[in-house]
Amino acid sequence: MYKINDNYQKLPGSYLFSTIAKKVAAYAETNPDKKLIRLGIGDVTQPLTEPVIRALHGAVDEMADGATFHGYAPDLGYSFLREKIAKCDFEERGCNISADEIFVSDGAKCDSGNIQELFAADNRIAVCDPVYPVYVDSNVMAGRAGSYDPATGFWSNVIYMPCTEANGFVADLPAERPDLIYLCFPNNPTGAAITKDRLQTWVDYANQNGCVIIYDAAYEAYISEPDIPHSIYECEGAEACAIEIRSFSKNAGFTGVRLGYTVVPKALKCGDVSLRDMWARRHGTKYNGAPYIVQKAGEACYSEEGRASVRGLVNYYMENARTIYEGLKGMGYTVYGGVNSPYIWLKTIDGMSSWDFFDYLLERAGVVGTPGSGFGPAGEGYFRLTAFGTKDNSKAALERIARI
Ligand code: MLT
Hints:
By secondary structure, this protein is an alpha/beta fold.
């Protein structure tokens, strides 16, 4: 009889956003008259911008003509896109990243789940608590997390770095030495940002202790304050210790289009083994690339017009973030995030648990959010709202919450 990967059996429940979707669907079925406002999963609501739509149409026309048709994409992605990324996302910010260190993919979620394959099964990971669940769950599937304690919500072999009000939701260096460190800034779920000085201490720590930082910068477009790095490669020495993951989902609205990329610098080596070459080998073997049409749409985000249009989308959502942040504050809630991030992280009221608060908002206001405890034990007593709704819905959600 064949054997399954037992590690899957260790995973408690379903993926956080699947659990929420099921709960909300059940509620909607028994309450068909209630119009729900969904500010749970960070899914965008605004249409693709004009330059992106034009590029998509143009690429479809190319695919319809034998003379301009494209089959398989190059392993790393088309150079027309990788060159633009290297220039606009890195060179312009003073980062020393070249196009052949950039791997185009169908999104940051897949890359952040897959990247752990480069590392040995007995490596120890360190994650922030609360944390985007993909980092932990993908390591559980790979057998790296140990066993789960339902009483505490901790995995025995994972090093947790609490992110609390006391440290401004930016983790302190871990007490134990990990091999892999997952960082996400601006942070999902707390919305916290990290200063360049503080990120430099992480880079120095990783270089001194032989760790790799997996840096998820999917929300960098939302940075509005100075001295907040957009890329970890703004820090000195980061090419030797960090992998960075980026997304087109949250800035250009590609959640349904699918495009992202991962940077694995050539300087990142374990002894004389290049992680960049390993990731290239993996890409070549397991992946046939994001579609040509989609990569053309990605390229369109980097023209002058494209960049302005992406900025317009980000501004739209940041206006929602302000509405939600200030509205909740005005009602007496303790609120974080929302300034360099599309996520608003609030404390539940009256000592309610995160899931009780989820039910409370759903039943009393018809507003769907995400319970903080779903992101890890330190998220208990907190709740996340996203600014990715429409302007009208963001305002209406606030009015409903105020009326409770
Ligand atoms: C979230 O809501 O945390 C994100 O949308 C999840 C994701 O990007 O995969």
